[in-house]
Amino acid sequence: MFETFPNARRCALLIAASLAAVGCAAPAFGQTSDQAAASEKKSGSSKPKLSDARPTSPNATINLVHLLVKQGVLTEDQAAGLIKQADDEAYIARQAAKNASTRAEEAAKAANAAAAATEPNGTRHVTYVPEVVKRQLREDIKREVMARAEHENWASPGKYPEWAQRIRFYGDIRARYQGSFFPTGNDQLDAFNFNTVNTGSPYDMASSYNLPTYNASKNRNQAKLRARLGMEADLTSGFLAGIRIATGESNSPVSTNQTMGGGGSNFSKFGLWLDRGYLTYQAWDRDLVASVGRFDNPFWSPTDLVWNRDLGFDGFALQGKYRVSEGFTPFGVIGAFPIFNTDFNAGTNLTQLDSKFASHDKWLFGAQGGFASRFDPLHEFRVAAAFYDFENVQGQASEPCYVQSSSDVCNTDQTRPLFAQKGNTYMLLRNFQVGSWNNNGTTSLYQYFGLLQKYRPLTVSASVDLGDFHPYHIVIDGEFVWNTAFNRALTAGGTGLAASTGITAPGMALNNRAATSDGQTIGPFNGGDKGWMTRVTVGNKEIKQLGDWNVHAGYKYLESDATLDSFVDSDFGLGGTNLKGYFVGGSYGLSPNVWASLRWMSANSIGGAPYAVDVLLVDLNAKF
To answer: What are the strands, taking DSSP E only, across 345-424?
Structure first.
C-alpha cells in the first residue's frame, strides 16, 4: 500500500474510498468536516461514532485510519505504517516550508540592504515576494530535504545509515562431545611427541631415550566449544576488509576448539584469538580477487586430505576465473605465504664475532589451476591440480656446537618446526662438540629435532555433483597427493631412537621405522610419500532449514611424508599423517541455521610404531 500511495494525501483518498465501500460516510475531497456534518444533517443521516476505546484525533486522516481498523479493512500494523508515513511527510513538508520562509526573509533583507545603499536617507521600501516564487522555493527545498532524508535514512523507520549498511556481522557456535578410544596393542613408549620438545627447551638425549610422548593408550571423553565472530566491511570501489575472532586453547593453526573444563578449569574464562584479518580487492564481478593478510584457504580443496578446514593462510593470494562458455569455467590461484620469520635478535648474546644467526625464513608458495564444467542443469564436474613448495622447512644439521646447558643455542635451531601434529619423519639437528664440558659426548646432549625431508607436494582434486534428485544430491569427492621432493635415500641407515647405544649425529631417520623382535633396535624405514582420499555424500548439499539432511562415508590413506603434518585434518586419528582408515557421518537440520552432526572415524598407523584410535564427534552447530 505504501508504494501505491506514496504520500498522506493519496492515502486519504484511498481511505475515503474504502470507507464508502464499507458503508461509512467520508467528507468529499476539499470539503471541511463542518461542511460534511451540515450535509449529513440535511440528508438526515447520523454521524458515525468512533470507538470509545481510542480517543479522537484533530487530524481527520488519522481518525479515518482508526475507523478502518475498527471496520476490519486495515490491520493495526498497516494503520501504524500509514500514520507513521503521514507524520514523516508532514514533518518534511513543515521543514521545507520553514526553510523556504527563512530563505525568503534572508533574500528580502539582502534586497533592502542593497536598495538602501543606493537611495537617499529616509527612503523606505517594502519587499514583495510573489507567491509563485515562494511555492517554487518550497518545492526546491522539499526536494533537497527529501533527498537528504533518503540518503541518511533519518526519515525512514528501521533503517541504518548508508555507511552502516555496508558492514556485515556473522558468526557461529559449535558445542561438541569428543570421545577418543584406543584399542589394546598401541605402542605408548615410541609415540614420540617431537612438537613438545621443539616448542620448549631442548631435550637431553643423555638422560635416556624416554622422550615426551602423545597419548596413545588412555581413552578420553571431552566437551568442547568453538565460537567465532566476524565482521566484513564493504569499502566501496571493490575493496573489502574483514576480521574474525575465535576461541582456542592455543595458537594452533588447525583448531579453534576450547576444551570445557580444560586449561585453568573451575569455570575459568576462555581466551580469544585473532583468527582472520584481511583486505581484499575484487574486480570484474568477482572474477579477479586479490587478498592480503590472514584469510580463508584460497585453494580449492574438496577434502581435508592436505588442508585442515579451519586453517587460515597468512600472506598474499590472487584468485581468478573466466567463463569461456555457459558450462565451462577455468580458474586459477597463486599465492605466497610466510610460515616462519626469523627472530630479529636470533643468536647468542655474547660479545663476539658472528654471535647472531643468519635468517632462515620459511615460506609456502602455491599455484593451482582447474576448471568447473556443467554438463547440464543437473550435473557438475570440477577438477584441479596444485603444486605447493614449502621453502626451507627441511631440518639442517648445525655447525659443531658447544652445548653445556639447555639455554645454549646452535645455528640451525631455527630450522625445527615450531608447530607439528604427528607423522612426519624427524632427524637430530645439533652436531655437538665433544670435550670435557660434556664428558666426551656422554652428558649435556641437549637436542632439537628437524624434518628429514623436503616437501613439495603435487595435489590433484576432483568432485562430481549429481543432482538428479534435487534438492537431494549425490556428491563424490576425491583427492591425491604426492610429495615430489621426497628422497628415500635420506632414510637409509641409522638405528633409531630405541637403540640402547644412542644416537648423537644428525641426518638419520629417527621414527617411522619397522619394529624388530629384540625391541631394542628399529628396522628399516617404512614411511612413504603419497596419500589419497575418497568420499561419497548423499542428501542436501547444505544444511539450512528444519529437515535438511545428508550422510557421508569415505576412506583416507596418508603416508608419513606425503605432506606436512602441521596443516592436515586434526580430527582423523587425532591429527597428522601416517594414518589410514574409514569414516562415516551425517547431519540433520533442527531449525533454520541450526543443525546436529555425528561422525565416527577409525584410524590406524601405516608405518612405524603400532597406533590406532577411534574418534566419535557429536556436534550441535548454529550460525548467524
So the answer is: 362-376, 379-391
Nearest to 483 by CA among 580, 390, 403, 608: 390
Look at strands 457-469 and 239-247 and give their pairing. unpaired
Helix and strand numbers (H, E) in the chain are 6, 23
Pairing of strands 449-451, 312-321: unpaired
Q: Are 197 and 445 in contact (CB under 8 A)?
A: no
Residues 170-214 have pLDDT tens digits of 999 999 999 999 999 999 988 999 999 999 999 988 876 678 999
Strand-pairing partners, residue 281, are 239, 290
- Give the rounded distance of the alpha carbon of 299 from its chain centre: 15
CA distance 554 to 534: 6
For residue 224, what are the CA distances in angstroms to 171, 248, 493, 619? 17, 10, 43, 9
**What would the pLDDT profile of 407-449 be if each residue is shown by its tens digit?**
889 999 999 999 999 999 999 999 988 888 888 878 888 999 9
Closest CA to 426 of 193, 588, 605, 593: 193
Q: Over 50: is that where the pLDDT of 46 sits?
A: no
Rounded Cα–Cα distance for residues 150 and 88 (Å): 12
Q: Answer for the pair 582, 554: CB distance below 8 angstroms, yes or no.
A: yes
Grid cell of 598 as nine digits: 555425528
Chain segment 568-578, per-residue pLDDT in tens: 999 999 999 99
pLDDT value of position 41 = 44
Amino acid at the residue 401: C
Helices 76-118 and 8-21 cross at an angle (nearest 10°) of 140
**Rounded-to-integer distance, Cα 144 and Cα 362, Å:** 59
Q: Are 233 and 241 in contact (CB under 8 A)?
A: yes
- The closest alpha carbon to 181, from 618, 616, 514, 565, belongs to 616
**Contact present, 447 and 426 (Cβ < 8 Å):** no
Residues 616 and 599: their CA atoms lie apart, in Å, by 6
